[in-house]
Amino acid sequence: MSNDMSLLRASKTKLRKTILGSLKQLSQEQIQLQSHRIQERLFSLPEYQFAEKISVYLSMPSGEVSTRCIVEDALRKGKQVFVPYIYRETFDDDTTFPAVMDMVSISSVADYNSLPRDTWGIPTPDPASISTRTRSLSEDSRSTNSGSLDMIVIPGVAFDQDRRRLGHGKGFYDLFLHRYHEYFRLQTSAQGMIGNLQAPFLVGLALKEQLLPDGQAVPTTSTDWKLDALIVGDGSYHRKTSQNES
After folding, report:
1. pLDDT at 144 (0 to 100)
2. Using 50, 70 and 90 to split pLDDT, how confident is the model at 218?
């Protein structure tokens, strides 16, 4: 089993290296053109149009789909926008992760523009401001003070046509989704409202260079989450066809 996991990790590392190498060859003009196509497709989705609370990753200066226009559009339309915030967490069982991710609210375009940039050049909420922001998960990782998110816009390094995703290897989104869905499961059970509380719609954004050819799959384990939909910069769109599809 450990040998299988080692092979899987090696496969993921090799794929990341290949895709990231391809992305380095793209110009900003190419990325912006694909980003515009993706944004227009996202804005046309009913899941986006009706979403009241949306989580959006904040993009790096290069090498991935830009989300600036998505954040600005959502705020202009009166949606409540959440963005990633990474911090250290110790859980009830004394398990400590070097870093975990929550989603925290931003209030306006001015708030977004004021966010300091981290070492990757990504706008990131200042830790000193977190107490003034709404969080999708509270400190104990099991309850929320914001209500359920309607949509989560997710980045990645590579994607396949069956909506599998390969991230940067830190596990931030997979762990966040596990924690968030555990909250969702407990809420529906406690409230007896199964069918009324909806799990967030998970949509990935991919440059065409990040989409693997037909028949090639992203290597995954049981802890890796599959997307509900994937929008690609070449204009293609992939989504699950039924609620029963994984």
Report:
1. 45
2. very high
Cα dihedral 126→130→134→135 (10° resolution): 90
97 alpha carbon, distance to own chain's centre: 19
Q: Can you tell me the distance from the alpha carbon of 38 to that of 179, in angstroms, rounded to the nearest whole number?
A: 28
Grouping H, G, I as helix, E, B as strand and the rest as coil, residue 235 is: coil
At 27 the three-state DSSP class reads coil
Placement of tokens 């996202």 in the chain: 42
Query: Which distant-in-sequence residues (6+ apart) come within 8 Å of 233 by Cβ?
Result: 33, 34, 35, 37, 38, 65, 206, 207, 208
**Mean pLDDT over residues 85-95, rounded?**
70
Give every CB contact of residue 42 below 8 A, 6+ residues apart in sequence. 48, 70, 153, 203, 205, 231
- pLDDT for 118-133, tens place per residue? 999 999 999 999 999 9
Structure confidence at residue 142 (pLDDT): 41
pTM of the full predicted structure?
Answer: 0.89
CA distance 48 to 169: 28
Q: Which amino acid is at 114?
A: S
Classify 28 as helix, strand or coil. Answer: helix
